[in-house]
Specification:
2 helices, four-stranded antiparallel beta sheet, mainly beta, 10 strands, single chain
Length: 165
Amino acid sequence: MRVFQRFEVWLLLIAGGIAVWWSFKSDAPPAEEGPVAEMNADSPLQLRRCTLERDFGNARLDLEVRYKNLSPRPLFMQPPDVRLINAAGKDVPPFILPVERPASVEAQTTADFRLRFWLEKADLSGPLTLDIRGQKLEVKNSTPLDLEKLPNVKPKVWTSAVWTP
């Protein structure tokens, strides 16, 4: 039987391949809801998503942020230009992976990137503020979050500064 010599079989294979390619290509992120969607598009600093993953008594916080660099020089997303400040006014240490280069935003451009921080239990008792070259953004409001109520090693995602367990 010579199935692959028929024109219809090749046509179906090509159409199926295109359909599979198109489904992977058109995977757009879901439409955002709530305060993030209402955020002013002209704002140079915007919060997209917060992901908190508990690791026993500590937690890793991943912030997905959009920043418009109005400066004539590129900005590397690391201290002292980028800081996460807790309620006590202290800097929360960044979570650094040796194989991961720090994100950067070229001069006069806008970019989306991820910032990682290593939180202590006390950091979640009050507000958290992201400061990038003087532009401040509330990441978490003043409502305390009990780290013990979150499941261990299971990410929790918020799209605003209002964090509920």
